[in-house]
Amino acid sequence: LPAQGAALRLCSTRVAQEGINKPVLDRIIRVDHAGEYGANRIYAGQMAVLGRSSVGPIIQQMWNQEKDHLKKFSELMVAYRVRPTVLLPFWNVAGFVLGAGSALLGKKGAMACTVAVEESISEHYNNQIRTLVEEDPEIYKELLQVIKQFRDDEREHHDIGIEHDAEATPAYSVLKTAIQLGCKAAIFLSERI
Question: Could you tell me the CA-to-CA distances from 178 to 127, 129, 181, 185 in Å, in that order?
Fold first, then answer.
């Protein structure tokens, strides 16, 4: 308790923001939070359909990593006071539908979805890494470490999808292209709205 007459000062979770480019930081954290949220919903949809199948444990393993990613970006949103995208309710439904829909095509369909999404996200994270390095790699050191680690996790998920016959899905290239176009649109909108 404070001494007589002293004001009680509350601690803040806010991060010191000297030298940061707040609009760039807000855009990156907002879209990455939205992306990890969407990924969680995709894996939830896949688990709803394939959770008890032979590929269920593999999907669960990838989903667990995505849960950790979402938790970290949720923490960063609070620390840097970044508002989430207003599109989260839409990504909630769209992600689950994409996950369940791809899983209804079978194990290969789910893995094709994983490959398409994770390839898009890896590329997106690489673009963010370049942006932050151009801004100031020292100021954004911690965020760069997070994004690099998550990019590597997404690449691992991509490779798991390839190893589990994603490319053997009927109309694989059409499915992959359609999903990646959706990912690009989601990224564009979530950065801004």
Answer: 21, 25, 5, 11
Q: Where are the domains of the chain?
A: 22-191
- Structure-token pair, residue 68: 């950790």
Neighbours of 89 (CB within 10 A): 9
- Sequence-distant (6+) residues with CB within 8 A of 89 are none
What does 51-76 look like in DSSP terms, one character per residue?
Answer: TTSTTHHHHHHHHHHHHHHHHHHHHH
**CA nearest to 156, candidates 35, 66, 54, 94:** 66
In the chain, at which residue ranges do the beta strands (DSSP E only) sit? none
- Second CATH level (architecture) for the domain 22-191: Up-down Bundle (1.20)
| pLDDT tens track for 63-105 | 999 999 999 999 999 999 999 999 999 999 999 999 999 999 9
Cα-Cα-Cα-Cα torsion 155, 191, 175, 67, nearest 10 degrees, comes to: 50
